[in-house]
Give the backbone structure.
Amino acid sequence: MIRVYTEIEQGNKWLRKYQGCQPIFGCILGFTHTGLIPGISAAGATPTDRQYTCLADVEFLYNGPQAQPEYSLPPLNAGASPVIITKAVIDALNIPLYLFNAGLLKQPTVPTIDLGGAPANCLTSGNALDIKTVKHLLEQGWNWGAKLASEAENSYIILGECVVGGTTTALAVLLGLGITATGKVNSSHPQCNHTQKLAVVQQGLQASGRNFLSTASDPLQLVAAVGDPMQIVVAAMAMAASLKVGVMLAGGTQMLAVYALMQALAKKSGLLWLPENIVVGTTRWVAEDATGDTVGLAREIGFVPLMATQLSFADSCYPQLQAYERGYVKEGVGGGGCAIAAYLYRNWSQAQLLEAIEYLFRRLQRFSFQ
């Protein structure tokens, strides 16, 4: 149910170490106006829908299916929100849940830990976040990483994200760090919109007026120019937590960008971390996406163990879940990492995991038709 794609020996060692352990799940919520660019993301059928995607996902993650949610899961061109995977696993395995607001347009309707961040401007501005905000979020992430590590003694932390447009800000950070990421990132579209993403990123990097490829460049300034609030929080959380426990960065392109950011922070800012305690966990829909090159990107970053759940929706009775097999949605809200945890903790089979997800989806549909 789990395949390790890069740094195989290190990845398998990590899996053996945390077999049978109950993890803690932290989901970091953020917003970037980049996600409202027409066509940039499929995590919501329209730019208006995408303003509320994160709010709906976190409400569902906390409450599950409801008759009258404040924010319904947004309509998609195809598929269903990956939060359904995450919620099914968290409920079944009774995984402790922490929700962090790193910078949203509106306050969520469920309890979250407010980190005092801000939503990011569109990265095309070259001025996505105030540098003071980035430094504040770095400090908050570090403090909370240490706190979560104390709660997850002898186990590991799963860090997921919910940021619409986040694969584009990920590309911006990767390119700004000098990593050859063009054509390698993923998206929620069945065919990744590489040309659009690259044009947006190049505009932002140019507008920033900085040469980030310079050896003296500051990764915090890079995030401030073209990043999003989730990235710096997760980087700091993971680095701090890795000093005591295991960490799984639950996501694809976005978490690979966070891993690259951690490398830069360790090199430029002298922040301590134990990279051998950190892996990136995603879905096979991301890892094997033929319209990107996730494995090649992980190798380009270097020394990052990339693994993926082998969960399949091919035999699902629901067309919305079958859509994943055609390249829609693929990942998000820590879905891949939670699916990996289901196997690690309870040794779940494909059939057991699919049954839990379909049971939750069936409950959601009952409310939808009331």
Notes: Strands lie at 2-4, 24-30, 97-103, 113-114, 156-162, 246-250, 278-283, 306-309. Residues 2-365 form a domain with the Rossmann fold fold (CATH 3.40.50.10210). The chain has one domain: 2-365. The chain has a mean pLDDT of 96.
